[in-house]
Amino acid sequence: MKLPIYMDHHATTPVDPRVFEAMTPYFLQKFGNAASRKHSFGWEAEAAVELARKQAAQLIGARPKEIIFTSGATESDNLAIRGVAELHHERGNHIITVATEHNAVLDTCKRLERSGCRVTYLPVDRNGLVDPDDVRRAISAQTVLITVMFANNEIGTIHPVAEIGRLARENGVLFHTDATQAVGHVPVDVEKMNIDLLSFTAHKMYGPKGIGGLYIRRKNPRVALPPMIEGGGHERGMRSGTLNVPGIVGLGEACRICAGQMDAESERLRKLRDRLKNGILAGLDEVYLNGDETKRLPHNLNLSFACVEAESLLMGVHDVALSTGSACTSAAVEPSHVLKALGISEELIQSSIRFGLGRFNTEEEVDYVKDRVVEAVNRLRELSPLYHGSGSGKRTGG
Ligand SMILES: *Cc1c(COP(=O)(O)O)cnc(C)c1O
């Protein structure tokens, strides 16, 4: 077993060696511009791009023409949300979203609010789930877009996307989902789920960074977004700029691999995740699961360890790459807006750790991480006057 161990796959994933191998010829030999129509270098690049488009489309039940390539999910979220707001500004100015969205969605919505849009941020329940009835009640004649993420990047909670899609369709409102954490990991089908726009990115599914895509429905209804980036008219005019051919090839290959092994991989990771969870819970008291027990990504685990600072815990397990429930912004440590939205106490938010398992993690690594975490928590709690002073069994949240 090699140290350090990487268990932070919601932040990014390593590139699968098969993906890397598929990409390499497109740097050195097949370096053509996919928009060059006059020679074989261009044709070769274009053919590779179109194959990748097909591979990405297949993974989510779309048609190849409905996929456009972007720099990643942040750009896709911006393009989808700002695009719909601009496209439909005469019909209405209301957007519905959820408090636990990624900042790529929340910050885009906040910006639109400054330019006259009205945004409803729906709450979630204790497990991080949005209630479809809340979505339905929020829809008005002014509503032009519902944007709800597929699966949450911190707590792994999977929203009732198909139900929300049906509601959106029934009410003639477009439905966008940031499916960055779901695509390649759990089944996603834009037809069955009535999804009109869907963001995804390669680097959360064993592809390279800086390349992603946006699914844009072409039929029932046909959606055509105004571009954020002008020039050249690439990607059906919605996203200009010379295509990142090696990146796109990598994205396509990553999609192909995920499609082929999703069932087996998610089953393997679910078992490993449960082994990690059960091992930690057996070794420690006052540990609380954040997020839904079953409506959850198979490779996600988010736990709060009472009376332990997550930052100290990470230092105690320094040879394992994990994340805390707070983000260090410029100066301050900001508690996670996601855990806050679940109603978890500030204390337990500062005590939370996210484990993100991945394709190359082994059972041996899981057991190592479990042992290190149990040891470190016990050590820190021995030093904590809170833990001994308050007595155990007190549940403040989570
Ligand atoms: C990682 C992530 C993003 C951002 O993706 P990039 O490709 O890095 O821009 C957006 N949304 C969610 C839910 C994510 O997990």
Walkthrough of the structure:
With 398 residues, the chain is of the alpha/beta class. It has 2 domains: 5-11 and 262-389, Alpha-Beta Complex (Aspartate Aminotransferase, domain 1), CATH 3.90.1150; 17-257, Aspartate Aminotransferase, domain 2. 40% of the residues lie in helices and 15% in strands. The protein contains 13 helices and 15 strands. It has helices spanning 17-23, 25-28, 40-60, 73-87, 103-114, 132-138, 161-170, 245-283, 310-316, 337-341, 346-349, 363-383, 385-390; strands at residues 5-6, 67-70, 94-98, 118-122, 143-147, 174-178, 197-201, 212-216, 287-289, 300-305, 320-321, 323-324, 326-328, 333-335, 352-356. The strands form 4 sheets. It has a 7-stranded mixed beta sheet with strand order 2-8-7-6-5-3-4, sandwiched between helices. The radius of gyration is 22 Å and the shape is globular. Bound molecules: pyridoxal-5'-phosphate (PLP). Residues 72-74, 102, 104, 149, 153, 178, 180-181, 201, 204, 212 line the site of pyridoxal-5'-phosphate.
Write a concise keyword list for the protein shown above.
single chain; 398 residues; alpha/beta; Aspartate Aminotransferase, domain 1; Aspartate Aminotransferase, domain 2; seven-stranded mixed sheet; four-stranded antiparallel sheet; 13 helices; 15 strands; 40% helix; globular; disordered C terminus; binds pyridoxal-5'-phosphate
